[in-house]
Amino acid sequence: MAAALAFIDREERAGDINDLLDAAYLLPRGKVLGLTGPPGVGKSTLINSLIQQFRARGLTVGVIAVDPSSQISRGALLGDRVRMRTDPEDQGVFVRSLAARGRLGGLSEIAFAATVLMRAVYDWVFVETVGVGQSEADIASVADTVVLCIQPGSGDSMQFMKAGIMEIPHIAAVTKADAGPAASRALAELKGALGLASAPDPSWEVPCLMVSAARNEGVSELIQYVEQHAAKLSSTGELARKRHRQAEMWLTAMITSAYGRHGATLLGSSLKFDPDQAPFGVESRLASTLRVTRV
Q1: Predicted confidence band of residue 11 (pLDDT cuts 50, 70, 90)
Q2: Within 10 Å of residue 274's Cβ, how many Cβ atoms?
Q3: Above pLDDT 70, what percent of the chain?
Q4: Dihedrals φ, ψ of 208, to 5°?
Q5: CATH code for 28-236?
Q6: pLDDT above 80 (res 294)
Q7: Domain boundaries, the chain
């Protein structure tokens, strides 16, 4: 897994890597849980608790943790990996840190490809974003289920609305529930903010709860909501449709990033593909077409 991720992190992916990614895309095994929230909210600590509970049930877990990058050196500390206390001998857990490299949206550029590869191998894939704000909404482009984490003292419902993130989550959690009255106030404010926003899925009422990963409180309830949402997506067929939309979004973003809007406009309907196709080979062929035409 580590070697494959190193190859897809290269600027130019070789044909055999595209073949591997396409095969992984067409044979998904696991479900993808995205966790987003401001820095310091406790996402890594919560993921650590989730890993323990899923592993106790015999489920395998892959983790993609995106860390902020320096605007000067482009380097990253990759500290999220340090905060996840996993057993190095446990072959059922794999954690990969990715640097955002200045990319807006909260994810690394290779996060989609890494997620596709991991969900073909592990029962669950957890994707942790670099943070949350008006532009950090890319988590919805890779995750099946999104959990928004808010900590006590984050501000009132209007502050939440200003962040532009309330239309993203399928589940909302106030972390550090041991903060007492402050956590209860944050939960009430969070519910108020969600009541003013448009839900990502009108047929799913976004549950709000309090969790304390340090005390292992509320984590089992969070997992129940996550599994309920995953079951709903699978039973309605929405999971396959959602992943296909994500793949088309990724394809458009990659072409636009490399060749600008003009290149994407030239390709037009070619950026759409059949649900039984995989996006990586399509992207490679379209990019070759644009290079030939010297866009």
Answers
A1: low
A2: 7
A3: 82
A4: -120, 135
A5: 3.40.50.300
A6: no
A7: 28-236, 242-293
